[in-house]
Amino acid sequence: MAVERTLAIIKPDAVGRGLTADIISRIHAAKFQIVAIKSLRLGKKQAEGFYAVHRERPFFGELTAFMSAGKAVVMVLEAENAIAKWRDTMGATDPAKAAHGTIRKELGESIQYNCTHGSDAAETAAAEISYFFSGAELA
Ligand code: GDP
Predict the structure, then answer these.
(1) 1, 94, 102, 122: which is deepest, by most CB within 10 A?
(2) What is the mean pLDDT of residues 38-62?
(3) How many Cα atoms sit within 13 Å of 108 on the Cβ side?
(4) What is the per-residue DSSP string for 59-83?
């Protein structure tokens, strides 16, 4: 298995509910290395750019409003097989369908307010990491 990097976001719902430390503890327990981390509030346009792939979906407006409604914590995580491993750690998009022990199952409130984001493939991970971090921040 190759060492990979993936983009993780603690979304505004989770930050607002005071879950940042809990989620970072789970990241450490799962043996990811946090390569870079920052707290920021996405602008609406920045959220729309990040989720451009979902532009035609009925929930696009609601999703991008939610993602720009408060502070988020954006991270680059590194581990063997990090992309799939982080998605396993988060659980399925809908907390009601997520496996027991996952972040979304234990902490998520709904299919939208599901606490975390994770890249879904190597190409999207590279694009999403460069959306938020410069080369110097990733050294
Ligand atoms: P992910 O890769 O597991 O985050 O899932 P997607 O890429 O399919 O969706 C991106 C994000 O949009 C999800 O994490 C949710 O916050 C939100 N989302 C997905 N499906 C729905 C939906 O049916 N309704 C609403 N309101 N939000 C959704």
Answers:
(1) 102
(2) 98
(3) 27
(4) THHHHHHHHTSS-EEEEEEEEETHH
Residue nearest to atom 1 of ligand 1 (CA): 93
- Residue in 28, 54, 100, 117 annotated catalytic: 117
| Residue 36: half-sphere exposure toward Cβ, Cα within 13 Å | 15
Average pLDDT taken over every residue of the chain: 98
Q: State whether the beta carbon of 112 lies less than 6 angstroms from ligand 1.
A: yes
Cβ–ligand 1 distance for 110 under 6 Å, the answer no
Return the ∠ at Cα 23 (arms to 39 and 86), rounded to 5°: 95
Q: What's the pLDDT band for 40 if we cut at 50, 70, 90?
A: very high
In this model, does residue 65 exceed pLDDT 90? Answer: yes
Ligand 1 centre distance from Cα of residue 25 (Å): 24
Q: Which domains does the chain have, with CATH numbers?
A: 3-138 (3.30.70.141)
